[in-house]
Amino acid sequence: MKVLVTGAAGFIGFHLSHRLLEEGLQVVGLDNLNSYYSPALKKDRLALLQERKNFRFAAVSLEDQPDLETLFLEHRFSTVVNLAAQAGVRYSLTNPREYIDSNLVGFANLLECCRHFETEHLVFASSSSVYGLNTTLPFSVHHNVDHPISLYAASKKSNELMAHCYSYLYDLPCTGLRFFTVYGPWGRPDMALFLFTENILKGRPIKVFNNGRMKRDFTYIEDIVEGISLVMRRIPETNPVWSGAVPDPSSSPARYKLYNIGNNNSVQLEYFIQVLEENLGKQAVKEYCPLQPGDVPNTFADIDDLTRDVNFKPRTKIEQGIPNFIDWYRTYYSV
C-alpha cells in the first residue's frame, strides 16, 4: 500500500506517518511548511520522518493543482489521508482567505486528483467544530450540523459535502473523521495545552475562556492515530437502508461515511488545568475571559459508530496524556 499523507509535517500528520511507516507502508508526505505556527517545529518533525527509508517528502501545496497532479501521476496512491488544512477557529476570524484557499480550493484539487487517478479510499479530516450551535450532547454524526459559527467550521462542513458529491458522482470511497481536541507530544503551539504549559512555566497568565465554564473532549494523539489507521483499511460501503425521506447525515447510498473520533469523555477545563499544574509543579495565574467568537462551550463525542465498525477504543486519559506532553515539552525546549 502506498499512502499519501497531506499535512505530514503537522501534528497529526507527523504521528500518522510515523505509525504507517512502523506498519511497513510506503508513505509520501505532502506539506507546504507554512508559517501559521513555527516552521522550525514542522521541520523537526519532518526530519524524523525523513530518516525512514519508506518515506518521501513532497513540498507541495494543495492549492497548486499542476504539482499535485504530477505527484499523483508519479505515485498512483492507493489511499490518501488528507490532514492538510488551515487550522484554527480564531485565526479564521481575521484571515478568512487562508481558509478559502487551503480548505476549499485545495480540497477540491485533491478530490479531482483522487477521482482521475482512481484512488481506492480518501480519508479526510473534519472537525468537532462543525457541530456549531448544536447543544445536544454527546455530539452524534447522526445530528444535523447546518449551523457552524466560524469559517473554519464552515470549511470543514464544506469538505464533507464536497466529498459526498465526489463519492456519489464518481464512486470515490470517502471517509470523514471529525476530530475532537487532539493533544499530545509534538502538538500545535496554538492549542490550549501547549499555550498553558509555556505560560505557566514562564510565570505568565493563562487565558481561561468562558470564565472557566468550558468542557472539551480531549483526545490523545496515539488514540487518534489508531483510529485513522483502522479507518484507512475499512473502505465505506453504501447504506442500503438510507432514505431521502429521513436522511442520515453520516452515511449515504454512495460509498461515504462520517465518524466522530474522540475520547468519549467531556472534561471540565478547570480540571484539565489542575492536572497540568500538578504535573508541572507550579500554579497557573489565571486570567478569566468571556467566550470567544467562534468557540463553543462544550464538546463531547459520541463514538458508537466508530467503535461498532472498526472496534475503536480510546485508551488514554488526561492524567496520562498530559504528563506525556510535558515530558516531550521539557525535552524539546530543554526546560
Q: What does it look like?
A:
The chain is globular, with a radius of gyration of 19 Å. It has eleven helices and 13 strands. The strands form four sheets. It has a seven-stranded parallel beta sheet with strand order 3-2-1-4-5-6-11, sandwiched between helices. Strands 7-10 form a two-stranded parallel ribbon. The protein has a two-stranded parallel sheet with strand order 8-13. The chain is about 40% helix and about 15% strand. Helix 1 crosses helix 8 (about 220-230), helix 7 crosses helix 9 and helix 9 (about 270-280) packs across helix 11.
Short description:
The chain has 335 residues and is of the alpha/beta class. Helices cover 40% and strands 15% of the residues. A seven-stranded parallel sheet has the order 3-2-1-4-5-6-11, with helices on both faces.
Notable characteristics:
335 residues; alpha/beta; 15% strand
Q: Outline, from the CA principal axes?
A: globular
Secondary-structure-derived class? alpha/beta
Low-confidence stretches: none
- β-strand amount: 15-25%
Q: In which order are the strands of the major sheet placed?
A: 3-2-1-4-5-6-11
Q: What is the number of helices? A: 11
Mean pLDDT comes to 97
Helix residue percentage: 40-55%
Largest sheet: 7 strands, parallel
Order of helices and strands: EHEHEHEHHEHEEHEEEHEEHEHH
The CA-CA distance between the termini, in Å, is 40 Å
Radius of gyration: 19 Å
Count of beta strands: 13
